[in-house]
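Render this sequence as a predicted structure.
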Amino acid sequence: MDFAQFPRLGILGGGQLARMTLQAAVSFGIDTVVLAEAPDSPAGRLAQHEIVGAWHDQQILRRFADAVDVVTLENEFVDERVLIQLAEWGKLVRPGPHVLGTIQDKLRQKQKLVNHALPVPDFAAVEHPDDILHYAAHWGWPLILKARRNGYDGYGNATLQSAADIPGALDRLDWPTRQLMVERAVPFACEIAVLIARNDKGQMVTYPVVETIQRQHICHIVRAPAAIDAHTAEQATRIAQAAVAAVQGIGITAVELFVTPEHAVLINELAPRPHNSGHFSIDACVTSQFENHLRGVLGLPLGDPGLRAPAAVMVNLLGSRNGKLLPQGVEQALGLVDVHLHLYGKRETRIGRKLGHLTALGSSMEETELRARSASDMIKL
Protein backbone atom coordinates (compact mmCIF):
# COMPACT_ATOMS: atom_id res chain seq x y z
CA MET A 1 0.00 0.00 0.00
CA ASP A 2 1.21 3.51 -0.88
CA PHE A 3 1.02 5.38 2.41
CA ALA A 4 1.50 8.67 0.57
CA GLN A 5 -2.16 8.40 -0.43
CA PHE A 6 -3.29 8.52 3.22
CA PRO A 7 -5.37 5.33 3.29
CA ARG A 8 -8.70 5.53 5.08
CA LEU A 9 -8.81 3.04 7.95
CA GLY A 10 -11.97 1.15 8.84
CA ILE A 11 -12.41 -0.79 12.08
CA LEU A 12 -15.08 -3.42 12.64
CA GLY A 13 -16.21 -2.88 16.22
CA GLY A 14 -16.59 0.15 18.46
CA GLY A 15 -15.25 -0.94 21.84
CA GLN A 16 -12.14 -0.09 23.83
CA LEU A 17 -9.70 -1.93 21.56
CA ALA A 18 -10.94 0.05 18.57
CA ARG A 19 -10.78 3.23 20.66
CA MET A 20 -7.14 2.70 21.61
CA THR A 21 -6.30 1.79 18.01
CA LEU A 22 -7.85 5.08 16.91
CA GLN A 23 -5.76 6.96 19.46
CA ALA A 24 -2.66 5.50 17.82
CA ALA A 25 -4.00 6.32 14.35
CA VAL A 26 -4.10 10.02 15.21
CA SER A 27 -0.31 10.13 14.94
CA PHE A 28 -0.48 8.87 11.36
CA GLY A 29 -2.92 11.57 10.28
CA ILE A 30 -5.30 9.16 8.60
CA ASP A 31 -9.09 9.29 8.49
CA THR A 32 -10.83 6.58 10.49
CA VAL A 33 -14.27 4.98 10.19
CA VAL A 34 -15.85 2.70 12.79
CA LEU A 35 -18.63 0.24 12.08
CA ALA A 36 -20.34 -0.25 15.45
CA GLU A 37 -23.43 -2.29 16.18
CA ALA A 38 -24.78 0.35 18.59
CA PRO A 39 -24.59 4.17 18.59
CA ASP A 40 -22.39 6.22 20.92
CA SER A 41 -19.69 3.56 21.08
CA PRO A 42 -16.37 4.34 22.82
CA ALA A 43 -14.53 4.23 19.48
CA GLY A 44 -17.29 5.87 17.47
CA ARG A 45 -16.96 9.06 19.48
CA LEU A 46 -13.29 9.39 18.44
CA ALA A 47 -13.51 8.37 14.79
CA GLN A 48 -14.05 10.84 11.95
CA HIS A 49 -17.06 8.76 10.95
CA GLU A 50 -19.20 6.21 12.75
CA ILE A 51 -21.54 3.90 10.89
CA VAL A 52 -24.07 2.11 13.07
CA GLY A 53 -25.61 -1.19 12.12
CA ALA A 54 -25.20 -4.94 11.92
CA TRP A 55 -22.07 -6.27 10.22
CA HIS A 56 -24.15 -8.72 8.18
CA ASP A 57 -26.48 -6.01 6.83
CA GLN A 58 -25.34 -5.67 3.21
CA GLN A 59 -26.42 -2.04 2.85
CA ILE A 60 -24.62 -1.04 6.05
CA LEU A 61 -21.54 -3.02 5.07
CA ARG A 62 -21.49 -1.41 1.63
CA ARG A 63 -21.64 2.09 3.19
CA PHE A 64 -18.71 1.14 5.38
CA ALA A 65 -16.74 -0.31 2.47
CA ASP A 66 -17.28 2.81 0.35
CA ALA A 67 -15.81 4.95 3.13
CA VAL A 68 -12.55 3.03 3.70
CA ASP A 69 -9.50 1.60 1.96
CA VAL A 70 -8.12 -0.72 4.66
CA VAL A 71 -10.13 -2.77 7.15
CA THR A 72 -9.08 -4.24 10.47
CA LEU A 73 -11.02 -5.52 13.48
CA GLU A 74 -11.09 -5.24 17.24
CA ASN A 75 -12.47 -8.71 18.00
CA GLU A 76 -12.80 -12.11 16.37
CA PHE A 77 -16.61 -12.25 16.60
CA VAL A 78 -17.01 -10.86 13.07
CA ASP A 79 -18.19 -13.56 10.70
CA GLU A 80 -15.50 -14.63 8.25
CA ARG A 81 -17.98 -14.07 5.40
CA VAL A 82 -18.08 -10.35 6.23
CA LEU A 83 -14.33 -10.09 5.61
CA ILE A 84 -14.64 -12.13 2.42
CA GLN A 85 -17.29 -9.72 1.14
CA LEU A 86 -15.15 -6.68 1.95
CA ALA A 87 -12.19 -8.24 0.14
CA GLU A 88 -14.37 -8.99 -2.89
CA TRP A 89 -15.31 -5.31 -2.95
CA GLY A 90 -11.61 -4.49 -3.29
CA LYS A 91 -10.82 -3.56 0.29
CA LEU A 92 -7.52 -4.52 1.88
CA VAL A 93 -8.57 -6.65 4.87
CA ARG A 94 -6.00 -7.32 7.60
CA PRO A 95 -5.92 -9.78 9.18
CA GLY A 96 -7.43 -11.56 6.22
CA PRO A 97 -10.55 -13.75 6.16
CA HIS A 98 -8.51 -16.96 6.23
CA VAL A 99 -6.65 -15.80 9.34
CA LEU A 100 -9.86 -14.90 11.14
CA GLY A 101 -11.58 -18.10 10.05
CA THR A 102 -8.77 -20.22 11.44
CA ILE A 103 -8.43 -18.41 14.76
CA GLN A 104 -12.07 -17.66 15.62
CA ASP A 105 -12.96 -21.37 15.58
CA LYS A 106 -10.93 -22.73 18.49
CA LEU A 107 -11.01 -26.27 17.13
CA ARG A 108 -9.67 -25.17 13.73
CA GLN A 109 -7.11 -23.03 15.53
CA LYS A 110 -5.80 -25.97 17.55
CA GLN A 111 -5.77 -28.23 14.50
CA LYS A 112 -3.72 -25.66 12.60
CA LEU A 113 -1.21 -25.40 15.42
CA VAL A 114 -0.88 -29.18 15.72
CA ASN A 115 -0.33 -29.42 11.96
CA HIS A 116 2.67 -27.14 12.48
CA ALA A 117 3.99 -29.32 15.33
CA LEU A 118 3.26 -26.69 17.98
CA PRO A 119 2.50 -27.73 21.57
CA VAL A 120 -1.13 -27.49 22.75
CA PRO A 121 -3.19 -29.31 25.40
CA ASP A 122 -4.95 -32.49 24.28
CA PHE A 123 -8.24 -31.54 22.59
CA ALA A 124 -11.12 -32.99 20.60
CA ALA A 125 -14.40 -32.01 18.99
CA VAL A 126 -17.61 -32.76 20.88
CA GLU A 127 -20.45 -34.05 18.73
CA HIS A 128 -22.36 -35.76 21.54
CA PRO A 129 -22.19 -35.72 25.37
CA ASP A 130 -20.86 -39.27 25.28
CA ASP A 131 -17.73 -37.90 23.59
CA ILE A 132 -16.87 -36.07 26.81
CA LEU A 133 -17.04 -39.30 28.81
CA HIS A 134 -14.87 -41.01 26.20
CA TYR A 135 -12.11 -38.41 26.53
CA ALA A 136 -12.42 -38.34 30.31
CA ALA A 137 -11.66 -42.08 30.29
CA HIS A 138 -8.47 -41.34 28.35
CA TRP A 139 -7.35 -38.11 30.00
CA GLY A 140 -9.00 -38.14 33.40
CA TRP A 141 -10.78 -35.27 35.12
CA PRO A 142 -10.93 -32.27 35.15
CA LEU A 143 -11.70 -31.28 31.57
CA ILE A 144 -12.40 -27.90 29.98
CA LEU A 145 -15.50 -27.73 27.81
CA LYS A 146 -15.38 -24.83 25.34
CA ALA A 147 -17.62 -23.18 22.80
CA ARG A 148 -15.70 -23.25 19.56
CA ARG A 149 -16.61 -19.64 18.74
CA ASN A 150 -17.37 -16.31 20.44
CA GLY A 151 -15.98 -17.02 23.89
CA TYR A 152 -14.03 -14.43 25.87
CA ASP A 153 -13.03 -13.68 29.48
CA GLY A 154 -14.14 -17.14 30.54
CA TYR A 155 -17.53 -16.81 28.85
CA GLY A 156 -17.86 -19.87 26.64
CA ASN A 157 -15.80 -22.13 28.92
CA ALA A 158 -16.86 -24.58 31.62
CA THR A 159 -14.67 -26.67 33.92
CA LEU A 160 -15.84 -30.25 34.36
CA GLN A 161 -14.70 -31.91 37.58
CA SER A 162 -16.74 -35.04 36.96
CA ALA A 163 -19.49 -36.46 34.78
CA ALA A 164 -22.04 -34.80 37.07
CA ASP A 165 -20.97 -31.38 35.71
CA ILE A 166 -21.72 -32.23 32.07
CA PRO A 167 -25.49 -31.50 31.85
CA GLY A 168 -25.19 -28.07 33.47
CA ALA A 169 -22.18 -27.15 31.33
CA LEU A 170 -23.92 -28.17 28.12
CA ASP A 171 -26.88 -26.02 29.09
CA ARG A 172 -24.74 -22.97 29.94
CA LEU A 173 -22.82 -23.29 26.68
CA ASP A 174 -26.06 -23.60 24.68
CA TRP A 175 -25.36 -27.01 23.19
CA PRO A 176 -26.39 -28.20 20.61
CA THR A 177 -26.97 -24.71 19.13
CA ARG A 178 -23.28 -23.95 19.62
CA GLN A 179 -20.50 -26.27 18.53
CA LEU A 180 -18.25 -27.42 21.37
CA MET A 181 -14.83 -28.88 21.96
CA VAL A 182 -13.16 -30.38 25.00
CA GLU A 183 -9.61 -29.98 26.29
CA ARG A 184 -7.53 -31.73 28.87
CA ALA A 185 -7.05 -29.38 31.83
CA VAL A 186 -3.46 -28.21 32.18
CA PRO A 187 -2.00 -28.04 35.71
CA PHE A 188 -0.01 -24.87 35.06
CA ALA A 189 2.49 -23.01 37.23
CA CYS A 190 1.65 -19.69 35.58
CA GLU A 191 -0.07 -18.15 32.57
CA ILE A 192 1.94 -16.01 30.19
CA ALA A 193 1.34 -14.14 26.96
CA VAL A 194 3.46 -13.03 24.03
CA LEU A 195 2.37 -10.36 21.56
CA ILE A 196 3.74 -10.55 18.04
CA ALA A 197 3.50 -7.78 15.44
CA ARG A 198 3.90 -8.84 11.80
CA ASN A 199 3.53 -7.02 8.49
CA ASP A 200 2.90 -8.28 4.95
CA LYS A 201 6.62 -8.26 4.18
CA GLY A 202 7.25 -10.91 6.83
CA GLN A 203 8.89 -8.55 9.33
CA MET A 204 8.07 -9.64 12.85
CA VAL A 205 8.77 -8.05 16.25
CA THR A 206 8.10 -9.62 19.63
CA TYR A 207 7.04 -7.94 22.85
CA PRO A 208 8.47 -9.05 26.19
CA VAL A 209 6.90 -12.19 27.64
CA VAL A 210 4.38 -11.13 30.29
CA GLU A 211 2.69 -12.96 33.13
CA THR A 212 -1.09 -12.67 33.34
CA ILE A 213 -3.00 -13.06 36.60
CA GLN A 214 -6.64 -14.03 36.16
CA ARG A 215 -9.47 -13.36 38.58
CA GLN A 216 -12.74 -15.18 37.84
CA HIS A 217 -11.52 -15.89 34.30
CA ILE A 218 -10.89 -12.18 33.60
CA CYS A 219 -7.39 -10.76 33.24
CA HIS A 220 -6.70 -8.85 36.46
CA ILE A 221 -2.98 -8.03 36.42
CA VAL A 222 -0.23 -8.15 33.79
CA ARG A 223 3.42 -8.16 34.86
CA ALA A 224 6.06 -7.17 32.31
CA PRO A 225 8.42 -8.87 32.05
CA ALA A 226 7.27 -12.26 33.35
CA ALA A 227 9.22 -13.68 36.28
CA ILE A 228 10.31 -16.81 34.45
CA ASP A 229 13.76 -18.17 33.65
CA ALA A 230 15.50 -17.19 30.44
CA HIS A 231 15.13 -20.63 28.85
CA THR A 232 11.36 -20.69 29.40
CA ALA A 233 11.05 -17.14 28.06
CA GLU A 234 13.02 -18.06 24.95
CA GLN A 235 10.92 -21.18 24.48
CA ALA A 236 7.68 -19.18 24.79
CA THR A 237 8.94 -16.60 22.30
CA ARG A 238 9.92 -19.21 19.72
CA ILE A 239 6.57 -20.99 20.05
CA ALA A 240 4.62 -17.73 19.76
CA GLN A 241 6.55 -16.63 16.69
CA ALA A 242 5.99 -20.00 15.03
CA ALA A 243 2.26 -19.86 15.85
CA VAL A 244 1.83 -16.43 14.27
CA ALA A 245 3.77 -17.52 11.19
CA ALA A 246 1.57 -20.64 10.95
CA VAL A 247 -1.67 -18.65 10.87
CA GLN A 248 -0.12 -15.82 8.82
CA GLY A 249 -1.20 -13.14 11.27
CA ILE A 250 -0.96 -9.49 10.20
CA GLY A 251 -0.82 -6.66 12.72
CA ILE A 252 -0.85 -7.82 16.33
CA THR A 253 -1.50 -11.42 17.25
CA ALA A 254 -1.64 -12.32 20.94
CA VAL A 255 -0.50 -15.78 21.98
CA GLU A 256 -1.65 -16.95 25.41
CA LEU A 257 0.33 -19.81 26.91
CA PHE A 258 0.58 -22.10 29.93
CA VAL A 259 3.84 -22.88 31.74
CA THR A 260 3.69 -26.21 33.54
CA PRO A 261 5.52 -27.02 36.79
CA GLU A 262 8.03 -28.91 34.63
CA HIS A 263 8.66 -25.71 32.60
CA ALA A 264 6.96 -27.01 29.49
CA VAL A 265 5.16 -24.33 27.44
CA LEU A 266 1.78 -25.00 25.81
CA ILE A 267 -0.34 -22.69 23.67
CA ASN A 268 -3.72 -21.87 25.20
CA GLU A 269 -5.29 -19.56 22.59
CA LEU A 270 -4.53 -17.00 19.90
CA ALA A 271 -6.26 -13.65 19.31
CA PRO A 272 -5.82 -11.92 15.91
CA ARG A 273 -5.87 -8.34 17.23
CA PRO A 274 -4.62 -6.11 20.07
CA HIS A 275 -5.09 -7.80 23.40
CA ASN A 276 -5.68 -7.01 27.06
CA SER A 277 -2.32 -8.54 27.95
CA GLY A 278 -0.62 -5.86 25.84
CA HIS A 279 -2.26 -2.73 27.23
CA PHE A 280 0.83 -2.07 29.34
CA SER A 281 2.69 -1.32 26.11
CA ILE A 282 0.97 2.06 25.67
CA ASP A 283 3.01 3.53 28.49
CA ALA A 284 5.75 0.94 29.02
CA CYS A 285 7.08 0.21 25.53
CA VAL A 286 8.84 2.24 22.87
CA THR A 287 6.03 1.33 20.44
CA SER A 288 2.61 0.34 21.76
CA GLN A 289 0.78 -2.74 20.54
CA PHE A 290 -1.83 -0.44 18.97
CA GLU A 291 0.71 1.50 16.93
CA ASN A 292 2.41 -1.69 15.81
CA HIS A 293 -0.95 -3.18 14.90
CA LEU A 294 -1.54 -0.21 12.61
CA ARG A 295 1.98 -0.41 11.21
CA GLY A 296 1.45 -4.06 10.38
CA VAL A 297 -2.01 -3.53 8.89
CA LEU A 298 -0.77 -0.59 6.76
CA GLY A 299 2.36 -2.40 5.60
CA LEU A 300 4.74 -0.04 7.41
CA PRO A 301 8.02 -0.96 9.14
CA LEU A 302 7.38 -2.18 12.66
CA GLY A 303 8.46 -0.26 15.75
CA ASP A 304 10.64 -1.23 18.69
CA PRO A 305 8.58 -3.28 21.21
CA GLY A 306 11.14 -2.96 24.00
CA LEU A 307 10.38 -1.80 27.54
CA ARG A 308 11.07 1.78 28.62
CA ALA A 309 11.45 0.75 32.28
CA PRO A 310 12.70 -2.38 34.08
CA ALA A 311 9.21 -3.22 35.36
CA ALA A 312 5.64 -2.47 34.33
CA VAL A 313 2.38 -3.63 35.92
CA MET A 314 -1.05 -3.21 34.38
CA VAL A 315 -4.25 -3.58 36.42
CA ASN A 316 -7.67 -3.85 34.81
CA LEU A 317 -10.35 -1.57 36.24
CA LEU A 318 -13.72 -3.29 36.46
CA GLY A 319 -17.17 -2.06 37.33
CA SER A 320 -18.12 -2.44 40.99
CA ARG A 321 -21.84 -1.63 40.66
CA ASN A 322 -24.59 -1.23 38.07
CA GLY A 323 -25.70 2.12 36.68
CA LYS A 324 -24.29 5.32 35.24
CA LEU A 325 -20.50 5.50 35.32
CA LEU A 326 -19.27 8.12 37.81
CA PRO A 327 -15.53 7.57 38.36
CA GLN A 328 -14.22 8.21 41.86
CA GLY A 329 -10.68 8.33 43.20
CA VAL A 330 -9.00 9.37 39.94
CA GLU A 331 -7.23 12.38 41.46
CA GLN A 332 -5.79 10.31 44.31
CA ALA A 333 -4.59 7.53 41.98
CA LEU A 334 -2.86 9.95 39.62
CA GLY A 335 -1.09 11.48 42.59
CA LEU A 336 1.11 8.38 42.70
CA VAL A 337 4.39 8.48 40.80
CA ASP A 338 4.48 7.07 37.25
CA VAL A 339 0.92 5.77 37.22
CA HIS A 340 -0.93 6.10 33.91
CA LEU A 341 -4.72 5.88 33.69
CA HIS A 342 -6.83 4.85 30.71
CA LEU A 343 -10.63 4.97 30.91
CA TYR A 344 -12.55 3.62 27.95
CA GLY A 345 -15.36 6.14 27.65
CA LYS A 346 -18.18 3.74 28.49
CA ARG A 347 -21.31 5.48 29.75
CA GLU A 348 -22.62 2.68 31.94
CA THR A 349 -20.98 0.56 34.60
CA ARG A 350 -21.94 -2.93 35.64
CA ILE A 351 -20.31 -5.39 37.98
CA GLY A 352 -17.28 -6.99 36.33
CA ARG A 353 -17.37 -4.86 33.17
CA LYS A 354 -14.00 -3.74 31.80
CA LEU A 355 -14.05 0.06 32.06
CA GLY A 356 -10.37 0.96 31.99
CA HIS A 357 -6.90 0.03 33.08
CA LEU A 358 -3.88 1.64 34.66
CA THR A 359 -0.18 0.96 34.26
CA ALA A 360 2.61 1.70 36.69
CA LEU A 361 6.29 1.82 35.73
CA GLY A 362 9.23 1.29 38.07
CA SER A 363 12.62 -0.18 38.74
CA SER A 364 11.49 -3.30 40.64
CA MET A 365 8.49 -5.55 40.06
CA GLU A 366 7.54 -5.78 43.73
CA GLU A 367 7.40 -2.02 44.31
CA THR A 368 5.78 -1.31 40.94
CA GLU A 369 3.01 -3.82 41.55
CA LEU A 370 2.39 -2.44 45.03
CA ARG A 371 1.98 1.04 43.54
CA ALA A 372 -0.28 -0.22 40.74
CA ARG A 373 -2.49 -2.10 43.19
CA SER A 374 -2.67 0.93 45.47
CA ALA A 375 -3.75 3.15 42.60
CA SER A 376 -6.39 0.68 41.42
CA ASP A 377 -7.78 0.38 44.94
CA MET A 378 -8.32 4.15 44.99
CA ILE A 379 -10.47 4.13 41.85
CA LYS A 380 -14.13 3.15 42.10
CA LEU A 381 -16.09 2.66 38.89
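Summary. The longest strand covers residues 190-198. The chain has a mean pLDDT of 95.
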